[in-house]
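User: I've been going back and forth on whether these two constructs are worth ordering. Before I decide, could you fold them both?

Assistant: Sure. I'll take them in the order you sent them. The first construct and its structure tokens:
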Amino acid sequence: MLSARSLFQEILDDDDSFRLFCSIAASGESQGGWENARIAALVPESQRGLRPKIVRHGADEDKHGRIFNALLRKRGLEPVDVPVEADYTMLLEKQGIGLAHDKLRADEPLTEYDIVAYLAHSRVTEQRASEQMRLLRKHFADDPDLGRAVKMISNDEDNHLAYCHEELLRLAAAGHGRRIHRILRQSAMAEIRVYRDVSLAFMTDMGRILGWPGPKVALLTAGIRLVYLYERFHGWRRMVTLSMPERRDALGGPATPAPEYA
């Protein structure tokens, strides 16, 4: 029987598939850490109150990358290069999601519009991250190796999503509402396409590594395409709504340290 738990368990039990899974996750999280660090360094004076929260956001993402690399080391594995077709963060940047790296590498201060775009993009991608980590937490919170990692990362991603909601509502009240709505919708539509493409590439790679039979790959491929159709015509709306979160000032304190792995 195909289920999310059985598929993840199969991936986690094999060294080669586990190595690819953790390598992709570590790369994306580390990239997010760098991006947030640069945004914090370039934040305009009009939004200087956000700087500590952006720093915290980046520290969390960097911590997540270190956690996935530590999980690899614990099994005596080294990271592998992320396949281009499965590089979620790079493909998002090509779609205009996230601030351009050329801009982040420069020393010119960002604009308030850049900060609005950064938070709107983050609200969309953090929705995906929060949902994925909740799924892993549901099935593997009690796992002796993954449990601490998935619980910590899941909590952090929920904090990031709450932070995006709260700050975007603040900026909407300050007159950026139409711009926020436009960017959210554009970002959501682009993200669901990228997520579909990355999911298809990831399943193809996993099928090759794990020797999945053709019918299984075909069934998973059909499932990914059905999810995309649902998101394209309805599910995207969950990525663009804004509501005041229960977790207020979710990034108002220091980042929690990563768990240690022997």
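The second construct, handled the same way:
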Amino acid sequence: MRIDLHTHSRVSDGTDSPAELVRAAAEAGLDVVALTDHDTTAGWDDAADEADRVGLTLVRGMEMSCEGRGEDGAPVAVHLLAYLFDPEDPVFAAERRRLRAERVARIRVMAERLAVDYPMIEPDAILAATGESAGRPHLARALVDAGAVASVQEAFDGPLKTDSPYYVAKIDTPLDTAVEMIRAAGGVSVVAHARARTRGRLLDLAHIRDLVPLGLDGLEVEHADHDENDTRVLRELAEELDLVVTGSSDYHGDNKTLRLGEHTTAVDQYERLVAQSDARVTTTTGG
């Protein structure tokens, strides 16, 4: 069984529709795929319909924008994968709405700043095309389409980097709060690509330890942005803390050079993740 627990559709910053992503997952030989668009569940229904049609198991998930404690003690952006939660949980649903509003406001300001020096950038058109899950990859794609840069990566290395005058920060969910919200909604949480050095500053490993009593379930260990040493460090930490170990592609369609199933999750770890969600749902509903 081949299991990929981290993918994105164009509902957030991928290029495939949810149905196209599921078909591509089946064609890539996957048996299980998780749809984890940023701060939204909007693609779940379309993905589920296609998964039923092609005979693939869909894990309903989301990648949440959070703020943790960096190795230097200062706040750092962190992504938290949430799986199998109740999308109707009122507290968690309200926080997702807030995050999406933050995304839209931030991308509008960034697009307006870019438009001063890149007149071909049209903020209204970008936001009309992207919706509530707007992110920097959408700006990167607009810069590529306009011929201002040669690739999405060039956009991130240049006008969209965090120290660029066009960059705007957003207010993300405190990591501790996010873990607690996911648990309260019956879901399971996994810290995404915690040692992705090419993305900038790193989350303090001690903060991961602090999350375990709050309900953290796992670590994404096998990921394209982890080198061999950091993969080992995370695997050892997961073993120490008795956390689920996942592996994933972080597929974004044409926006990144990542293949579906490039990294996968072991069957026993996937089964453990599902079992932990089942136990929480039973507790929450009183069944």
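Notes on the second construct follow. The CA atoms of residues 204 and 255 lie 28 Å apart. The mean pLDDT is 93.
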